[in-house]
Amino acid sequence: MTTVVERLQGESPKFSVEFLPPRDAEDEKVLWKAVRELEGLDPAFVSITYGAGGSRRDRTIRATGRIAQETTLLPVAHLTAVDHSVAELRNVIGWYAAIGVRNVLALRGDPPGDPMGEWVAHPEGLNYADELVALVRELGDFCVGVAAFPYGHPRSPDLDTDLKFLLRKLNAGADYAVAQLFHAPEPFLRLRDRVAAAGCSAAILPGIMPMLSPRGLAKIVELSGADLPVEISRRLEPYADDVASFRAEGIDIATEMCQRLLDEGVPALHFYTMNRAKATREVLSRLGLVTRA
Ligand SMILES: Cc1cc2nc3c(=O)[nH]c(=O)nc-3n(C[C@H](O)[C@H](O)[C@H](O)COP(=O)(O)OP(=O)(O)OC[C@H]3O[C@@H](n4cnc5c(N)ncnc54)[C@H](O)[C@@H]3O)c2cc1C
Questions:
Q1: What SS3 state is found at 206?
Q2: Rounded to two decimals, what is the model's pTM?
Q3: Test site for ligand 1: of 118, 132, 153, most ligand atoms within 8 A of the Cβ
């Protein structure tokens, strides 16, 4: 199977998409509609997040397997260390290998129920993502990605410490990183440049999620860990009660930011899709990266 690194090669900018594991049969239909709509646009890869526990995890594994076996897409399986012994992690990784999935995004994960709660490692498990990177690497010929945080991970005391641990993951054998959501290009570009200045050539992909509604915007702000820049608030505020205009402005803002990132030479844009294809298609079409929206 092709690797993410291979798919990112070449001069032309690429894009990739992220999906969530479906919660039920209805959700599964929504996911597969988006998968099929985006398949024709030839994303570099599609990644599927790893559920916080139990059945959600089985659905991640099933959806990843289906994408590997029933589509032309390159799946990247997310995996977290949450509530897993090393033996269990080995099992999941082995299962991915058995169905031909060779691309893994290695994450530490958060305490279930409360992302900022106390982190308690499984007694026979791992503490940090760099250990999972090393484990995946040890188990086979995998291409491994990790998470990066343009505003710093919420648990990191400062950006220097955050960079140190990102470099540790990359030096443990990760091939690339995907960034958490951000609202303005500068913090992402600074992080990318600091990684390069530290002598690391791994690609850092920007994570993009257009602001489509006031509720979606609140989620983006929460996940990014940073306040919205004043100029973006000013652009969106007038449309707080006008769903269509809010969405249109959100697509404009995302397109402008993506264009700036492409001008700055990012190899690919990674879209957090929430299992819907429309906004991603619109932004890609506006950027001229696909011919039909
Ligand atoms: C692109 C992306 C995809 C994601 N996908 C998922 C998913 O599928 N499922 C899910 O549950 N969550 C997912 N997350 C959320 C992620 O699991 C959380 O943000 C988690 O808190 C951090 O994971 P990490 O892999 O960055 O952890 P780590 O890199 O281990 O970092 C965790 C914290 O510990 C610090 N740290 C790292 N190494 C050390 C060390 N050796 N010593 C001391 N401190 C250290 C870091 O600075 C950071 O503050 C995703 C996040 C991103 C950005």
A1: strand
A2: 0.97
A3: 153
